[in-house]
Amino acid sequence: MDLEELRALLARHARPDMGTAIDGVLVSKVDRSSPPSPAMSGTVLALIAQGAKRIALGDRVYEYRAGQYLIASVDMPITGHFTEASPESPALGFGLVLRPAVVAEVLLRAAPGDLPPAGGGAAPGMAVCDAPEGLVDAVVRMVRLLDRPRDMAVLAPLVEREILWRLITGEQGGVVRQLGLADSGLSHVARAVRWIREHYTQSFRVEEVARLSGMSVSAFYRNFQEVTAMSPIQFQKQIRLQEARLLLATHPNDVTGVGYRVGYDSPSQFSREYRRQFGAPPSQDAARLRGSVPGASPALV
């Protein structure tokens, strides 16, 4: 497994915003451990070449380190931090945004019998696995393209499909395959997740969101909990609090107004739940956030 070459490539191409010249490819370099911080996971493959990271999703905790990858098949509110990172040995990671349309295209190209049998119901929306040699090799070839601009437009889409195929046929393939299936349990949950994210300030009844997602209430609740490790109401609360934190970073003197903007009718409830989530009341946390607005990049890489 050629992690040494991957480390050198990632270290050379890392930028503060994690972006690269290849659409959907992310590169990260972190030179210090930090306290756990909230973010959205993104829908992404995250492979660590050096260092280690811990992610909390609801009541589940995922840890992955050099030579392992994590898959997130739904954009979910998480808390995470690098547990092994220093200036002498920075954490280095590769990310690939998972696009359902491309996953579906790869699935359609597979011959009958090439795919492992699908399991029933919705798989968890996050999974960790050791990276097989074929996957690491494809990732190395993808990052090499950053040094070959002429080849990017033609070869990057081909390597992306190879990476997806390695994932789809790998140990956690079920998590990825569901992304490309229009009627999978994950696709129904993803529909509900999008609705909650777009309407997070509004109160809702679980029955209404179940109907919008095309499932019975019992199936919806079971699948939602399986994928996100949270109930729909808990998920909405996480989104509200994370949005509030983003707003407070730029409006630190308007705690009450921010609470109302994200859907809280009671300032005391907002302050109580905010403190429980972030370890400090809104005004104190806002002061701490000045100068370091949380970013919107996927937080797994």
TrEMBL record:
UniProt name for this protein? AraC family transcriptional regulator N-terminal domain-containing protein
Please tell me the species this chain comes from: Sphaerisporangium corydalis
- Region of interest: Disordered: 280-301
- Residue ranges that the Swiss-Prot or TrEMBL entry lists as coiled coil: none
PROSITE patterns xrefs: HTH_ARAC_FAMILY_1 (PS00041), HTH_ARAC_FAMILY_2 (PS01124)
User: What taxonomic classification does the UniProt entry list for its organism?
Assistant: Bacteria, Bacillati, Actinomycetota, Actinomycetes, Streptosporangiales
The organism's superkingdom is given as Bacteria
Q: Which SMART domains match?
A: HTH_ARAC
The UniProt keywords, alphabetically, are: DNA-binding, Transcription, Transcription regulation
Could you tell me which InterPro entries the record lists for this protein? Homeodomain-like_sf (IPR009057), HTH_AraC (IPR018060), HTH_AraC-typ_CS (IPR018062), Tscrpt_reg_HTH_AraC_N (IPR009594)
Show the PANTHER family listed in the entry: ARAC-FAMILY TRANSCRIPTIONAL REGULATOR (PTHR43436), TRANSCRIPTIONAL REGULATORY PROTEIN (PTHR43436:SF1)
The record places domain HTH araC/xylS-type at 190-288
